[in-house]
Design brief:
Blueprint (H helix, E strand, L loop, with lengths): L4 E4 L8 H16 L8 H7 L5 H12 L8 H21 L9 H10 L3 E6 L3 H12 L7 E6 L11 H10 L6 E5 L2 H9 L3 E5 L14 E3 L11 E3 L10 H11 L1
Parallel strand pairs: 1-2, 1-4, 2-3, 4-5, 5-6
Antiparallel strand pairs: 6-7
The chain binds xylulose-1,5-bisphosphate and magnesium ion.
Magnesium ion binds next to loops.
């Protein structure tokens, strides 16, 4: 079975959007709405256990701000989140967050090699479009055969729904794909959908459990900037390219 497709998570995998995008946007939205909520980096680290911005706000209220009451909480949270999305999209248009090392290179190499590309993420679709368009250009949105994002599926990660949704649309079997993730919730999601996963950790996820990952790396690496192998088979590769992915796939899938 040969490798045919790569399916990418977005937040934390393609870019450090959680720290430099989402967290900033949540706090700016709170301030604009005259809420005295301020999420620190430490608190956000804990809140990231819950995927989905609206659920994350509710989790914050239930666990860290129990005194806050509202008689129409669902709509109130939805309105905060809509403002947060608007702010996030603006931040992306200002170039707030670059892609992580090796991401653009790997997209280009994969396309040149005829691999199919897709996205499977929990974040709101407008956020994905804004990140891609502002880092790679608007045309790059067409590089992805399917962009599965947000609540197009009933259950967010760690459920496998979003990966299954994407593979259904591509009409492809998981054995012909690899997933790229950065977090525990992400690998559980990909694994539940039958996928093998390449992990690149970040500051929020470097202590997570990644049992079953094909490999755990600090990032995808570049020719002049090798990755650090955190977990997985020793290799002569120093950056993730199509050849290395084919090798991993042939050995483990
Ligand atoms: C991403 C998420 C999202 C983002 C915020 O997780 O959980 O909720 O943090 O985006 P993953 P929204 O990387 O596993 O897909 O506020 O639009 O939900
Ligand atoms: Mg992620």
């Amino acid at each position: 079975m040969s490798l045919e497709a790569l399916i990418f998570d977005v937040d934390g995998t393609l870019a450090n959007t959680e720290r430099d995008g989402h967290l900033v946007a949540f706090n700016l939205a709170f301030r604009e709405l005259d809420l005295d909520w301020v999420w620190s980096n430490e608190l956000y680290h804990e809140l990231l256990d819950v995927t989905g911005g609206q659920l994350r706000i509710k989790y914050y209220l239930e666990k860290y701000n129990t005194g806050f009451l509202h008689d129409d909480l669902d709509n109130f949270v939805a309105s905060i989140h809509a403002l947060k999305t608007k702010i996030y999209v603006r931040l992306m248009s200002e170039g707030a967050v670059p892609l992580r090392p090796g991401v653009e290179r790997l997209f280009n190499e994969a396309r040149a090699a005829g691999l199919r590309l897709a996205i499977a993420t929990t974040t709101t679709p407008a956020n994905v479009d804004a990140l891609i368009a502002n880092t790679l250009g608007k045309d790059a949105l067409d590089w992805f055969e399917v962009i599965g994002a947000g609540d197009v599926v009933p259950n967010l990660k760690p459920a496998g729904d979003i990966y299954t949704y994407v593979m259904d649309k591509m009409n492809i079997d998981p054995s012909k794909c690899l997933a790229f993730e950065d977090s525990y919730n992400g690998i559980i999601s990909a694994t539940s959908a039958g996928l093998k996963t390449v992990i690149t950790v970040n500051e929020y996820t470097d202590k997570h459990q990644f049992d079953g990952a094909l490999v755990v790396l600090n990032n995808l690496g570049e020719k002049n900037k090798p990755f650090k192998l955190i977990k997985g088979d020793q290799t002569d590769s120093s950056y993730v390219d199509v050849g290395y992915l084919q090798e991993l796939h042939a050995k483990h899938c």
